[in-house]
Design a protein that fits this description.
Structural class: alpha/beta
Order of helices and strands: EHEHEHEHEHEHH
Shape: globular
Helix content: 40-55%
Number of domains: 1
């Protein structure tokens, strides 16, 4: 592992991470920065972006605002990048118990699934010129079910299918497309679960390590 993720591994490489103002996205952005990549981390909250820009421990990361629901904003954002080696589609939301309404269902699919397609297509030429890579953040709910979040389940199942399709579409040009499917990790999105001792213990008990994952577990350091 130490040899595979040696210091300076991504020196001279540019990495774009969507949904990177908290949780898994922020951990991934920090991981790439620790390996000397030029990291651009995006989010939609002005308050979060301002706080992260002021954090001296994150000075190696450039935080930018991006609405991944807007095709035009995505095209304009990617167009101003000189080069791109890695795209990480980590933007994601869940609306427990509200996803049975049409508006919320569509909102979740837009952020979790459609945005990954938009970013991948906008970045395709730059990734092909660098023979780069796309990493999509799926979920264990790509393969399982949670009745409280039908849109989240559908979107993350869709991420797996999208990853397979893009891998075949982009592969001939040298762009690798893969997905990571995390289980239960302690992030802001899952706070209602891990802050409830009964629910948290039940989830931990059925995991291999008998504990909740941490976002940093997904980053090799």
């Amino acid at each position: 592992m130490e040899q595979a993720f040696r210091a300076g591994l991504f020196e001279g490489r540019t990495v774009l991470v969507s949904g990177a103002t908290s949780g898994i996205g922020l951990a991934i952005a920090s991981g790439f920065a620790a390996l000397s990549a030029r990291v651009i981390a995006t989010g939609s909250s002005d308050a979060k972006l301002a706080s992260l820009r002021a954090d001296r421990t994150l000075e190696g990361i450039r935080f930018e605002k991006l609405d991944v629901r807007s095709p035009g904003d995505i095209v304009d954002f990617v167009a101003q990048l000189d080069e791109l080696d890695v795209l990480v589609n980590a933007a994601g939301v869940a609306r427990p118990a509200d996803e049975y309404t049409d508006a919320v269902f569509q909102e979740v699919l837009d952020v979790n699934l459609s945005a990954a397609m938009r970013l991948s297509m906008a970045a395709r030429d730059r990734l092909e010129s660098r023979r780069g890579a796309i990493i999509n953040i799926a979920s264990m709910l790509s393969f399982m079910a949670d009745a409280d979040v039908p849109a989240y389940c559908a979107s993350k199942s869709g991420i797996v299918g999208l990853t397979r399709a893009l891998a075949h579409a982009f592969g001939p040009a040298g762009v690798r497309v893969n997905a990571v499917a995390p289980g239960y990790h302690r992030t802001d999105m899952t706070k209602a679960l891990w802050q409830d001792p009964a629910k948290a213990d039940k989830i931990a008990a059925r995991s291999a390590l008998k504990r909740w994952g941490e976002a940093e577990d997904l980053v090799a350091r």
